[in-house]
Structure formats: structure tokens, C-alpha cells
Amino acid sequence: MALNPAERFTTRVADYVRYRPDYPAALVDWLHRELGVPAEAQVADIGAGTGISSKLFLDGGHPVSAVEPNAAMRAAAVQWLGGDARFAAVAGSAEATTLADASVDLIVAAQAFHWFDQQAIKDEWRRILRPHGLVVVFWNSRRLSGTPFLEGYEQLLLDYGLDYSSVSERYNDDASMAAWFEGGLRGMARFDHSQLLDFDALRGRLLSSSYAPQAGHRRHAPMLEALRALFDASAADGRVRFDYDTRVFAGTLGDRNPSGTRP
């Protein structure tokens, strides 16, 4: 039976913390420079996971409320970021954040956005946003081609991933994201991003993915053998390069009256 999205990463937290990519600091710089977001703006990081996206905004000067339903991932975020007085972890979901009305200036949603019910979240996000507050949606989209390693890794996932074809790269294109903002899109951007990984880090990066078979599954050992062969054939100076496009969409959600129509 398929796992609830909030539960998919419970057994993968350690690998997620160590090996998942961060996001480029240029993303926050762009928000400050191009959209005029002040560094003191209160952020709600929805689906914050282990805190990777929260760290990005803390480093940019923002206070952050990290909303995450998965207790194990939330605990990892607290262990990592809990010493910063500007950080608070919140047990809540994208549709029911538990945050107060009109309490945040900026809602951000990173890699978790594609797991959300993207229509159901809108009323909740409107509720917690202050007037003129912004929503920022972003993610790292792994490049599937361009180098022998990237193409080989994609084939490995197709060969061994458990439900890879149904959950991989489920990210919206530019047109559908513009439509999601219902006329409120104020900007979009794309940034190059990458990781340089030795074999242990590559292995951990793979096992952090919810569709990678874990130890005990019949595909686990063959998958790791194929990964070793791919690494040996592709590595330069003991590392391979994981390339991403970091895509960012920012805008307002507007208001709705109780009947569900715009005023």
C-alpha cells in the first residue's frame, strides 16, 4: 500500500539530512532585490522537512516557522536549527498549519510542494498571510540529461525505482504555476545548482529518495551494484556532479469571500 506523503521519508531522515541538496543563496537575494522582500519578513516554511529550506531563509536574515507533519523530520530540523532563536518548528500540515491568522509575510514551499493538494492549501495560506504577503514556491529539478552520469542515473531509477515513474519530477511547468497563482504571479526565476558527490554521498543521495528500494528489498542490492558501476564509469577525481535547475515562482494569492469567489 502506498505511503501517505507525510510518511514516505520517515525511514530516510538520516540520509535526507546528510545528502539532499540545499538551495542557492541567490534565490533569497533575488527575492530581496527584485521583489523587495525585507530581510525581517516572517517566513512560514510549509513542508519544511529536515530544515534545508528553513536554513536558506535563516541565512538570509528571516525568522522562520517551519511547518512539518512528519515528527522524525521535524525533530531533525530542531536538532540542526533549534539553537537559532529565530527558528520555530510547528507540527502542522500544508492544509492545516496551526499558525495564527495574518501571522506571516512570506509563505515558502520547496521540494514538498508537489506532494500537496495544490488547491486545498490556498484558503489556509490566505488565512495565515498578512495583507500583501507573498507565496514563494521553489524546488531543485534534477537534470535528466546532458552528461553520461545524469543519463545513467536516470536509467538506474527507471530500472530499480519502486514507484519512480509515478512520483518523479512531478513538478509543475511554468504555465501551470502561473495559472496556480490565478493572475498573482509577480516573478519567476531559474538558477543553476549542483552537488559534487563521492560514492558514499551518491549512495546516500539515492537512498534519501522515497522511491529507492531499501535494505531487504530484492532490488536494493542490484541497484547499489549498478550505482557503483555508474560511479566508477563517470567519476572524475573521485566525485560525480549532480546538476539541478532551481526553479522559483513568487506571487500573491489574493482574497476570496466566504462564497469562494473573488470580491
Automatic annotation (TrEMBL):
A GO biological-process term: methylation
InterPro entries per UniProt: Diverse_substrate_MTase (IPR051052), Methyltransf_11 (IPR013216), SAM-dependent_MTases_sf (IPR029063)
Superkingdom as given in the UniProt entry: Bacteria
Coiled coil ranges: none
GO molecular function annotation: S-adenosylmethionine-dependent methyltransferase activity
Keywords: Methyltransferase, Transferase
Residue span, Methyltransferase type domain: 45-137
A Pfam short name: Methyltransf_11
PANTHER family per record: METHYLTRANSF_11 DOMAIN-CONTAINING PROTEIN (PTHR44942), METHYLTRANSFERASE TYPE 11 DOMAIN-CONTAINING PROTEIN (PTHR44942:SF4)
The family this protein is said to belong to: Belongs to the methyltransferase superfamily.
Name of the molecule in the record: Type 11 methyltransferase
